Structure of Putative delta-60 repeat protein:
Amino acid sequence: MIRYPLCMLSLVVAACLSCGNVRAGDGDLDPRFGPNGDGRLTIGIDTGAEDIAVQAVPALDGSIYVVGRTSPGIGIVRLTADGLPDPQFAPMSYPSDTSEYWLGASAAVQAANGDLIVAGHYFGLPQMDGPYWIACRFDAAGVPVGAFGDGEIAPGCTDKFGAGVRKEGEIRDLLIHPAGRIVFAGHIVDGADKRRAALSSLTPDGDPDPTFDDGVGEANLVLPHGNVVPESEYNALALGPNGTLLGAGEYIVSPDDSDVLVTMHFQNGTAFQQFGANGSAIHALNLGPVGARRDTALGIEPMAGGMFGVVGTAQFSLAGHTGGFVLWIKPNGSLETSLGNNGRTVLQEDGLDLRLYDIERTPKGKVVIGGSLMPVDAPDVTLATVLRLDQAGDADPTFAAASLAVFAFSDDATPDEFDDETIHPSEIFDLAMQGNRILAAGYQLLPPEAGGADFGLARLGDGRLFGDGLESFGP
């Protein structure tokens, strides 16, 4: 367990907000990135709207896509490799006509031909009917690919999955499998109005994939808990050993009690029965003390040797105090006890809430985690947070000031304490590696008089950047 006194976090904030030199050390905001030379930027797509970035996608040509949701639709921005607006790509909200449907993005991935595939959900207007699954495909210029899907909801989009019908629920993540299929993870709502963790697959053209477990694998994820069949949902998806699919999310026993859900599936969607406890294909873990607590996995990342890391948020007290965790899991579903504390790295601090949403493995073999931090007694003050762990699964003291970097996406002030008058609330939902540097995407709330939120993007160093641009891949 790591401990961060409030005074130490204040020093970290100050350090991250005053990166004035040309070298970005481990955990420093990169002064070579962004229009203001301070390693960060905010992007507003619709004035007064809640523009929330959910994914940073380093593109094949070196540019960066930032994808998220705006109040009316899917938001997409393209930047240069150094975080400057791309003059050839205007920030877009799709579709432009929102009179019938309201689309929202949860995840995005770039295809080998440069197209961008975005997944999430939509609502039917004006009754806000839904949400329902949806996936859309855009070319590198942001133009919808008309040949993708049926285009019924919007050109270049489809809401037909499984047996060719729409699915009530939300997609939370996706990947392009080496076999060519596009795999989606999230939850569906069944006939009893219960959430069920679900996987589905489309062909590259956006048609339902008839070879993928009848399109939806949620039947494999219904596991009784006593006399109760819990609800469940996937929040993250990753490629596992030998082309398998790794899912991470939440196993909901009751409204006040949930466990971390981790599963493995073959590439065709059928469950890998030798994974987890009792040959159930499901691994459910309770992170908090004995009693009803909410524990949920929000990110998953493959590691060396077939192992993978699962990150999320756990409730560690009846008062609702939350902390973060990383689970180090072997290919058979058991914990890798040589890492962390018997396979678990727990991150918490009295008086602070820490929420962790994503995990990435760096080229140096270390692990970075993104999320947010807030004082329990000042819930309106939220700061974007990036932590790094070493190869042993412990907090890395060589990263930033105390193994974590804390910042807001656009504040110029250097606060010496958590103060909602000087810090614009910021939060990270996604991390991506741009070579040996860390991209962190999320949002920043605007002042109350303006309303709404803007996309937020930052770049941090993960290896010393020298004057000639060479990067050190030290131990």
